[in-house]
Amino acid sequence: MKKIFYGLIICTVLASMMPENTVIPVQTATAKDWNQDSYWFAPWGKSGVHKGIDIFARKKTPVLSASNGLVIFTGNIERGGNVVAILSPKGRIHYYAHLESVATQPLTLVTQKSLIGTVGNSGNARGKAPHLHYSILRLMPNPAEITLEKQGWKRMFYMNPHLLLTSEQSHL
Ligand SMILES: [Zn+2]
Fold first, then answer.
1. Where are the domains of the chain?
2. Which CATH fold topology does 2-166 show?
3. Which residues have their alpha-adjacent CB atom under 5 A from ion ligand 1?
4. How far, in Å, is the centroid of ligand 1 from the Cα of 108?
5. CA of 132 to the centre of ligand 1 (A)
6. What 8-state DSSP symbol labels residue 78?
7. Bridge partners (DSSP) listed for residue 109
8. Cβ(110)–Cβ(130) under 8 Å?
9. What's the CA-to-centroid distance between 86 and ligand 1, angstroms?
10. What one-character-per-residue DSSP string does 87-105 give?
């Protein structure tokens, strides 16, 4: 518990000091390695809507933390396969899925570009081209994001990673 407490304090201090700039979380990947229209694409499998982007890369390419933060979950889940979730200073949860391997553990403080795993096709990406599924969830909902699209109300709980990764001022 102490570790979480100190982690949150450090995150809060970091948040007050710096904007959240993010880096592309797959080593050597560029914006050409994902489809910029894939965020909120529908229909999309069992989730109905695609709430992130898929960054394609060779299997076992290093996955790096897009932001500073505190690892709050690692594990294997049905759809996501091997996943890592990191709480960033801005109160956002960065979610990395379909990993081949996980290289961090809960309650670890990571900095931008820390190695957290490798690209794979675990979970419901099995049999598909290896890619990193990357989503950003907001702990503080933003009602301005709501649209009339399918599941559009849920957009207030998410961010478009494409915009964040390609914006000059990435602290949207
Ligand atoms: Zn995806």
1. 2-166
2. Glucose Permease (Domain IIA) (2.70.70)
3. 54, 133
4. 25
5. 7
6. T
7. 70
8. no
9. 17
10. E-TTSEEEEEEEEEEE---
